[in-house]
Each structure stands twice: as structure tokens, then as C-alpha cells.
Amino acid sequence: MSNSAESTSSRPLRVAIVGAGPAGVYAADILTKSNEVKDGDFQVSIDLFEAYPAPYGLIRYGVAPDHPRIKGIVNALHKVLDRGDIRFLGNVTYGRDLTLHDFRAFYDAVIFSTGAIKDADLDIPGIGLEGSFGGADFVSWYDGHPDVPRDWPLEAKEIAVIGNGNVALDVARMLVKHADELLVTEIPDNVYRALKDSPVTDVHVFGRRGPAQVKFTPLELRELSHAKDVDIVLYPEDFEFDEASDEAIRSNNQIRTMVNTLTNWLVEEHAEA
Ligand SMILES: Cc1cc2nc3c(=O)[nH]c(=O)nc-3n(C[C@H](O)[C@H](O)[C@H](O)COP(=O)(O)OP(=O)(O)OC[C@H]3O[C@@H](n4cnc5c(N)ncnc54)[C@H](O)[C@@H]3O)c2cc1C
To answer: How does pLDDT run along the chain (273 residues), one tens digit per residue?
Structure first.
């Protein structure tokens, strides 16, 4: 957007960035790095707006606590903000505190990097029944998000996780892991206590298609098998592949790796039985 009445030739280009997750911070970083300094002045001036008091978006409130390497991205983002050439404005919600009209008056360009924090609606009968929760809420709870209640009703012995992406595996892993193993992470106390007291014995992960269509990645899949005292149970009928699945396995290295890993587990499971 370029709508400012004032000419930009005599002053820096003013850019507003909305959302201080990794996308917003990296966009700010790239813009400042491309900044030519003329006569000692910055040619780009950046204001980074964030709805929450603190930055880093889903790295803080989405990535599971037992993924310290990914959580560590916060350090890289912090270095960018710590340089002092980007103005961070927390506690400002676009659409409530500021509108596009305000931005048009004060900025030459706006970058929206507000992420995708909400759960997708699922058209499944009973989705609204008691005991059914969206993954984003549960993840926000275990990551200590300030907008989510601190208590979570972890009362079920059997839990169904619907979906076959990395978030499904994060949720399944957090549910089955010994809570004590999480003490080395930044897990909030209330979450540790709730997971420690959780009566869960079985977590069922459901996908609408088969192993050749899963969306999680090999690292996250293998991580699940490293969880202490956890048996992974697979069903042979899920490994009867149709033509499209065979083609996907042939042509895609990642799918092949996943299917091979799952098939090996299936073989081991039946060899032990
Ligand atoms: C549960 C979960 C687990 C994940 N685990 C991993 C992982 O292990 N490894 C990995 O690489 N990736 C992981 N990801 C993905 C990773 O978190 C995202 O790809 C990344 O955070 C996206 O960055 P972003 O900046 O686009 O959005 P976000 O991180 O969502 O940041 C958007 C920011 O915009 C702010 N915002 C939103 N609306 C407004 C508004 N109206 N006004 C002002 N500010 C606003 C938000 O508060 C937020 O700070 C995970 C994601 C989820 C959901």
C-alpha cells in the first residue's frame, strides 16, 4: 500500500508490520538489512505491532515445550528486536485499536503477518459435545497462553486425536509422555501437575486416509517412538495401499520414509506378538 500524502524522498519509508511472530520479525529483519543508510539516516523505519504484550507468536504459544531446538528460534528473533532499529509496539490489536485507515495516514506500506492461530472448523457430528476440544486450545494451554484458562479437564483414560499432522503428534506425545520428562522444559507448573495426574492410558490418532497420506514429518514420527513406556499400535489393514498411494510412495522420498518407518513398526509389533 502506498498512500501517504507526504513525499517519501526526504524521509525514510515508513512500514508497519502487524504480528510479531517469526514472519513479522523476519520481514522486519530483511527490510532493515536492505536499508541503505544515506547521510546517517535510516531509509526504512519499521513499527512492529503485536496483539500480545510479548512477541514471537506461535513459537512461544504453539511449539511444544519438549521441542527446545525450535523454541530456541526465539533467541534468533530476540537478537533482531534487541538491535534497536525496529520499534516493537505490544498490546495493540489490529482491527480493534488500529484500523487500515490509521495505517494509511501514517505509513507507506503495511505487512500483515498475523499467522493462523484458529482451529479449522470440522464438519463432524458431535464436534461440539462436551469433551471435544480444538487442538489450538489444548496447545495454547500446555504452552501457558495468557488467554486460555489454566485448568484443563484431563479426566479421560482414552483420548482421540483427529488429524495426521505434526500438531496431532505433538498433542499425542504430550499426552503420553511421563510428565517428569517435561520438567527440563519451560512447561508451566499447572500443566506439569495436570499431565502428571492425567489418567490417560490410550491415545488413538485418527486420519481420514492412510499412511501414504499422513502430513507429519519423519522426525516428529520417530520422536513418538522414543517416548518412554509407550507402545505404538498399528493395524495391518491400513497398509493395503491403492494405486494412488503406491505412486505417492514411489515418487515422494518423505512419504516413502514415513511409510517405511510405520511398516517397520508394524512388522516389529507382529514379530513380538
Ligand atoms: C501447535 C503448533 C505447533 C507447531 N510446532 C512447530 C514445530 O515444532 N516446528 C516448527 O518449525 N513449526 C511449528 N509450528 C509452526 C510455527 O509455529 C508457525 O509456522 C510459525 O509460528 C508461523 O509464524 P507466523 O509469524 O506466520 O505466525 P504466528 O507465529 O502465529 O505469529 C502471528 C502473530 O501475529 C499476532 N497477531 C494476530 N492477529 C493480530 C492482530 N489483529 N493485531 C496484532 N497482532 C496480531 C499474533 O498474536 C502472533 O504473535 C507449529 C504450529 C502450531 C500451531
So the answer is: 444 445 555 688 999 999 999 999 999 999 988 766 656 565 899 999 999 999 999 999 999 999 988 989 999 999 999 999 999 999 999 999 999 999 999 999 999 999 987 888 888 899 999 999 999 999 999 999 998 999 999 999 999 999 999 999 999 999 999 999 999 999 999 999 999 999 999 999 999 999 999 999 999 999 988 889 999 999 999 999 999 999 999 999 999 999 999 999 999 887 876
Ligand 1 closest atom vs CA 49: 43
| CATH numbers and ranges of domains, the chain | 13-112 (3.40.50.720), 135-272 (3.50.50.60)
Determine the distance from the C-alpha atom of residue 265 to the mean position of all C-alpha atoms in its chain, rounded to a whole number. 27
Residue 77 Cβ contacting ligand 1 at under 6 Å: no
**Residue to mutate, 18, 63, 143, ligand 1, most ligand atoms under 8 Å from C-beta:** 63
The alpha carbon dihedral of 233, 236, 241, 246 has a sign of: positive
131 pocket-lining for ligand 1 (C-beta < 6 Å) = no
| Rounded-to-integer distance, Cα 95 and Cα 97, Å | 6
The residue nearest atom 30 of ligand 1, judged by CA position, is: 115
